[in-house]
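User: My instructor asked us to take a sequence, write out its structure as tokens, and then describe one feature of it. I'm not sure where to start. Here is the sequence I was given:
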Amino acid sequence: MKILHLLVCFLALGQATAQGLPPAPPPPMPDPLAAGGIHTGRLVGVVVGTAVVYALTSYLLGKTWYTKRVPFHTFDDNGEWLQMDKVGHATTAYAISRGEYELFRWSGVPDRTAILTGGLIALLYQSTIEVFDGYSQGWGFSKGDMAANAAGIALFMGQQYGFGEQRASLRYGFSSSLYAKYRPELLGRTRGAQMLKDYNGQQYWLSVNVASVLPVGPSFPRWLNLDLGYSGSGMTGGHANPPLYGADGRPVQFRRVRQFYLSPDADFARLAPAGSTGRMLLGATQFIKLPAPALEFNPRDGVRFHPLLPAAN
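Assistant: Let's start with the prediction itself. The structure tokens for your sequence are:
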């Protein structure tokens, strides 16, 4: 945004000099929602909806996922799954923060209040899950997870406070992997379960809006993003792979590798007018990586090109 302001000032200076008039500073950008006030119906709906989703999610997790309770304890899982779970925590916290912020702004809540509210709600959601982990057999309260949660919230709040927009966002992608069939009880038996459990199939993307960070011309598409992606492959266990055997009884071994991607993307929220309902709702829901060509590098296979979606294997 600072670059755009400098360009505006430069153009205004050139025009004023040509006309022999002193340059005038650019007018401040108004808040399109400031004059509208609070939309009571919308705000009540957002607050009630958020509370219901939080309560229902907590109840279902407690009844289905965290069934074996033990005394509260901590667990150091920072070395597991090539840190894919940590990136996932940051992405989830970012998505909740931004989604709640956009919904509260749609309700007419002042910008800075909505930023803080979105961040606090995301912290509440993620902290609740960590507390459940702390009382659950097989898991534990993870300081690393909480640090990742805080990083995702900070990425959203820092940009919104500092720039008034999200120049970089976190997004999620998924492609089915071959590894889940070797440990379906851990990595998921169905596609829906694998989208949550199989880190081999998940990708996480830092999506940067090009026009927000580079001095581009007025004809450059403001919706164009460039994404940096990260994933892992060959993982059938947290820290290491257990012994596995194929259908013929022979040992099966997989090499655990990190995967890095480069791919174009789109920020559809920038196609809608600033302050409009469409822009806010798109901003609240746009956390899925769009299918697009991608370049991949990993130390096992080198450089690979994917014409549509990154392959998980």
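For the description part of your assignment, you could build on this observation: The radius of gyration is 23 Å. Try explaining in your own words what that tells you about the chain.
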